[in-house]
Amino acid sequence: MNHRGFTLVETLACLLVLSLGFAAAIVLVAYGLQTVRLPLARSMGMATAMTVAADPTPLLPAGSSLDRAGAVTRGRINGLWVERREEPGEALAGGLRSHLVRVEVYESGDGRRICSYQERLLRRGP
Amino acid sequence: MSAPRRGFTLLEVLVSLTVVMVLAGTATASFLQLRSLTRRVQARQALSDTARIAFDRLRGECDAMVHAGAWWLGPTAGGGVELVFLRGRVDMLDFSFGAEVREPAFGAINPTALTDLLWTRLAWDPATRTLGLGGSSPLRMCKLAQPWRSPGGRDFQGAVAVFLPQAVRQAGTDPRTALDAHRLGNGDPGDLGDYGDLLANTVPLATGCTDLAIQAVLADGSVVDAAAGVAGDGLPVDGRGAAWAKRPRLLRLRFTLQAPDSRIDPATGLDDPASVIQQTFSLTFRTAGP
Question: 85-104 in A: which are within 8 Å (CB) of B?
Answer without folding.
Answer: 96
